[in-house]
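Pilot study result, target chain (353 residues):
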Amino acid sequence: MTIIARYEEISAVSTPLNPIDDLISWISGLASIGYTSDILRTIHKMAIQTQILSGARLISVHAENTIGLLDQAFSGSPDVSFLPLYYAILNLSKIYIIASGRANDLLNNRYHGASYDASKSRRGLLTDEIILRERGVLPLFYKVLTHRAWRWNNRPVRLADVYPFIPCISFEYDQAFGLQSRVQPITLRLNGNPSSGFTLIAELLALDKGLHPLTQSRRYLKIFAGLRSQSNHPARFVSDKIMVSTDTEARAQLLSHTKRHLLYHIVRDLFNKPVGIYTALSAAPIELAEEIPIWLAFFHLSNVVRYKPDTLARIKDSAAWPMLLCLQRHALLRFLVIFWSFMQQRTIELQID
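Predicted structure:
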């Protein structure tokens, strides 16, 4: 079946090697100012030559920083690698912002965009919290991803509202806490023809565990905004009909109103066949593009490493530690893949041979 993902084009890539090594090689190419200039010009549609050149130079610096930080993270102890891993992700976040034509905004937003109060004592990983701030990289990053305003100055966020939205560690999250991740596989498809009209149909997919309980409340399904449920098929939602002359016109018009930043990675069955795509189940006003929970998790852990080694020791002695060791590889890999998808403006599907 044809999967509708965050970007129109989907490119499947397979590797017999460590996929993180491949992503590092790709990102290393951004150190080339000529190569990066071509990406900004042809893919991100920058037209002003001075903006292209200055943007490519900035991206080159951040790409080299990212590679150095990743090398540092993987050559040292896993206990403290969260610190360089977060800063690698922070540098990639800045590349998103620069490639979106907002390099000048970084000059006035040099802070992280979130903070951590190390003086507070929490009972466990999920009850710990970070504070969202008005200015900094995170608000800019959010605007680039969602095209929406940032309104969360001084808002606390518990890690219990972060980890459920990182599906690449959903098994380990369940093992550690006995909780189900808050993501739901769905399908999106175009239906109709020029004579009868076109609609967009979205459908909840019941896989091995069935539908997530939160799908019973429409407010958790932000991806379905503008669609109406069907009484004879409660797991299906449909748009209003439009009359256009081609499938291409219909697809462009119907998907222009879809919050594609809420589409996560593609779901495959036991035979490795694509069957749908994950989306977040969140009623919070902040819209959780896939990058945001990963960013927040690594930001929090980097602060724990820096300021609360006693807390890190307690976490290491808990059921959460295997999950966090998986986070270092799986969530990082996922962030690298969606970063590269953004740079190429096409959904990259990376599989291991």
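One observation from the pilot: The CA atoms of residues 7 and 193 lie 23 Å apart. A full batch analysis is planned for the follow-on phase.
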